[in-house]
Specification:
With about 140 residues, the chain is mostly helical. About 85% of the residues lie in helices and about 0% in strands. Helix 1 runs antiparallel to helix 2 and helix 1 packs antiparallel against helix 4. The chain is elongated. The two termini are about 15 Å apart. The mean pLDDT is about 95.
């Protein structure tokens, strides 16, 4: 297996790690542990950024990966994939604004947008792992 061929697994690990870090970061802010929240959320941003870099490298080199499972599973796959893809594209600027507001100390604005951004970011991270499992583990190409 070439390094590029291993990127889908790396991407799933990065997405899963992001989901875990987002959950921990949310826990920390609910406990008012601001520094731990900041560190954890910046780590989530880092893992998500690394995911995006690896994702782009993989698809630049390999192209599109077609779903190979049965029709019933393809329906489920598309129900997961379509909102995952749309939300992943739409959420990037929102994440950047949320981080920028926190770094600038605009915590009221940060909090208002983060209430919407966090669940979407978490959804995209978790469904990214599901997409990987469906494409490469449960219904791999023959």
């Amino acid at each position: 297996m070439t390094p590029v061929e291993s990127l889908p697994t790396v991407n799933a690990i990065l997405n899963g790690t992001s989901a875990i870090l987002l959950t921990i970061g949310y826990y920390f802010i609910r406990q008012r542990r601001i520094n731990a929240h900041r560190f954890t959320m910046l780590a989530a941003l880092t893992t998500s950024s690394l995911f995006l870099i690896c994702y782009l490298i993989y698809h630049y080199n390999v192209g599109t990966t077609r779903f190979q499972g049965p029709a019933w599973a393809k329906t489920i796959y598309l129900i997961i994939l379509i909102p995952h893809t749309i939300l992943a594209a739409v959420m990037v600027p929102f994440i950047l604004v949320v981080v920028f507001r926190a770094l600038r100390g605009q915590f009221d604005k940060h909090r208002r947008l983060a209430r919407w951004t966090l669940p979407v970011w978490l959804y995209v991270s978790v469904t990214g792992v599901l997409v990987y499992m469906m494409l490469y583990q449960w219904f791999p190409s023959r």
